[in-house]
């Protein structure tokens, strides 16, 4: 008669040193003591593992992508008809990097107006490495000469959606990335008084 036994292996606190940090392979070795029972022909062992969460990884990161969860923000404008065209504008994106590897931000900002029209502005730049205790900061500046910021703002968007990814690249050097590492991005839109105003009719509620 066959017999089976299930054993749970606790990997908490274990350290792994795989040749490729993106591929972790676990091997189970079973040793039988004594003789097999009469009639036993096969001794078989299976290893089943769920999702492994690593608290820290030290490796050479070469193009490891981390997705940025999509986010959306509604933009409120007074009701009415607008005929306004900005001729100069800037957007500053302040990036705080608490990740222990140099990163490259690849984000798209899409604006949509009430008519269903949309404009997408890509944001792509490199950020130096940091850590949670001493994060690095960088300010990315975009204007009408190196981005689509004017097209985006002149659309008079009623909604802004962002999505993208962060690519970790340690430049061939070993870097340590932990679960507590983070990155935050804040955008500041600045439109100076350099605009063209046509006929406009704005209706507001006096109450």
Task: Describe this protein with a few key phrases.
207 residues, mainly beta, 4-stranded antiparallel beta sheet, 3-stranded antiparallel beta sheet, 1 helix, 13 strands, elongated, disordered C terminus
Task: Write down how many β-strands occur, each being a DSSP E stretch of 2 or more residues.
Answer: 13
Helix share bin: under 10%
- Report the mean per-residue pLDDT as an integer: 77
Number of helices: 1
The proportion of strand residues reads 35-45%
Would you spell out the secondary-structure blueprint of this structure?
Layout: E1 56-59, E2 62-74, E3 80-81, E4 84-86, E5 90-97, E6 103-112, E7 118-127, E8 136-143, H1 149-154, E9 159-169, E10 175-178, E11 183-190, E12 195-197, E13 201-202
Antiparallel strand pairs: 1-10, 2-9, 3-13, 4-12, 5-8, 5-11, 6-7, 6-9
